[in-house]
Batch of 4 targets.
Target 1
Amino acid sequence: MATVRQVQVTFDCAEPERVARFWCEVLGYVVPPPPPGFADWDAFDRSLPPEHQGSAFACVDPTGAGPRLFFQRVPEGKTVKNRVHLDVRVGTGMVGAERLAALDAESARLVGLGATRVRRMTADQVNESCIVMQDVEGNEFCLD
């Protein structure tokens, strides 16, 4: 039996590059180098048939530890809650007011990047809090 060594998370979206660049900023990810023979991703995109231009974009963890994120254009818009979402870990190891402050600060930073803060969810009011957010196309994710 083969062993899984890497995982890619794929997002359906309307504007792949826009959503990918948002997640680069959220996670500290980078855009990978373009395919061999192309100076940049714009040159690669121009080489595609018109109907495929702008149809996909990716970002990667520069340390290689996190999964590759891939964004693909689809014709339909988002209509229901995500079945899978990302949890962005903030304030790991922090407790109490320090943890809540870290969550609020990161939420404010992401709102500045175009995210929407939806609501705070709490289990024990302090240590199990998370903030439900939406990315630039309305995909839900949690700050926890």
Target 2
Amino acid sequence: MKSVLIIEDDPVIAEVQRDYLEAGGFRTDIAATGDAGLKMALNGSYDLILLDLMLPNMDGFEICRQVREVLNVPILIVSAKKEEIDKIRGFGLGADDYMIKPFSLGELVARVKAHLARYERLVGSGEPKPDEIRLRGIRIDKLSRRVFVNEAEVAFTSKEYDLLLFLLMHPNRVFSKDELFLKLWGYDSLGDIATVTVHISKLREKIEADPSRPQYIETIWGVGYRFNL
């Protein structure tokens, strides 16, 4: 049975969310404060986290940031904060979804199921090798620096490979162009951040079924890029 952690300080909302999720076949736990929620998230083995933003002791943004540093579980923000800047900040910190209160509880359960199914769609059977990364049709052999898309080998330049590997190893986290340029090229490199856009475009041409409608590398407008699980 999949488990969901609800971090919500309103007991009425938390109980209703729990009732609907448990009726949908999930096991749930509730944390009523930010610090308690963070501790439970990091120490538990939850498959998904429902996260309010306005919490006692620690806000949801900080929880999202700290959880995403060490875990790749889906994080769904559920909040009354509806300003675009709050959504952008949430996605930038690694949230997978953002629902504005009030919302349909049936839709909440449906989104939880959809995100969990998305996380489970890994390619291949059995456990991947320690030096191999498998994710939704993409397989990287880190020892040989070879990349396979739907089991067909695809040629990548050295920097394209490095960029793809970096994004794959940090799924669902949004990186700005500046961050990617710094991490992959460094301050002392010739050129500018425009090269990031060029390399993202080349990656999409090689791994996406339709580069104009990318499913892997998503553009988060005004923020940067995110590799979706």
Target 3
Amino acid sequence: MLTSSSSTSDEPGQHRGRTFITIENVEKKFSTHSGDVVTALAKVNLDIRENEFVSVVGPSGCGKTTLLRILAGLSSVTSGVVKFDGDSLRGPRSDVGIVFQQALLLPWNTVLDNVLLSPHLKNDRSEATRHRAEGLLAFMGLADFAKKYPFELSGGMQQRVAICRALMREPKVLLMDEPFGALDAMTRESLNVELMRVCSEEKKTVLFITHSIPEAVLLGDRVVVMSPRPGRISEIIDVDIARPRRLKTMANRRFGEICDQIRTIFGSDAPMVTAL
């Protein structure tokens, strides 16, 4: 449900809710065409709290997307357990929304129909559902583009539609796989601000994958730092910077310290993007 913004700042550590997602000793192996076995994830353990924003950073190929696909129920674990609110994950869940790097909109559908895709697949064409879709588009500044087609939108606007489509399911959990990675710097910054506003209003548990250390710190309550393959969690860093955060937060001394701490974990030669 969309509500008005609160003017109250969140103090660091205020997002210490109950554990909602539990990842216990998760391992994922793949068999290649040559018959070799590749270990993508090895003994990953992580608890994600309700309404917490967790950023995940790590070098390419470290298993970030594999972990997201497991949480989405799109890939099974080789060993270990994933639980949502105490229940073992056995496949895709209706209370999980996903936003990928590409918007993946249906080109023959209007913006509104793309947002309504999930309910339409369930034969839900009620006025209430349409009203929510229109409300989400308005919330994301897209009310005037409801009847446009994807090719008529910029890349950033398409990603806003993809976020609306994910929120249309009213998910408890939002999984985001480098959703702004292909966008220009100014659009990316704008969408970071929008995403923080959405999460403040909609109260979601978010796992956000990125290659950008500043983006991870700006958005996250915690930053999970992963090692090169086989992917393990090297360190989990609390972002002890009060909310609401804005772009000027990146000029904060503590912000710079946390970014430098993450860079140090990878070493000076780590292949990481260090700017939005």
Target 4
Amino acid sequence: MPRLLIIHHTPSPHCQEMFEAVLAGATAPDIEGVEVVRRPALTVSAVEMLEADGYVLGSPANLGYISGALKLAFDQSYYQLLDSTRGRPFGLWLHGNEGTEGAERAVEGITAGLGWVKAAETVVVMGKPTKADVEACWNLGATVAATLMG
């Protein structure tokens, strides 16, 4: 069974709301035959990342960059993943109170180096998530999970 790994850093209620919407989308009743595993960025292992068939990444944009937790997850696993995970689909959500461009560029650079394929548009939310933002997060989770269905 294909495995979707949701790697998240959710230090705020807004990030938690986005994470929960992504998870709800990834585990929607229409998504069949996909195991969804969720791990905080500070505890995810390289083995868990290697065992996944697709990824959804979530992070606050801290000072215009991805969280240290998500960066650490990649720092600890990058070379193990480098030749083993090419072509795998991924999606990204970011929460910021100011610019998120640096965080977006960071993830684009890391995932390009790994050869991952963007399966859905990045969801960027500034401030409190609106109903439309929550729906976009739900769609992000559902879209990446659906890419693994068949």
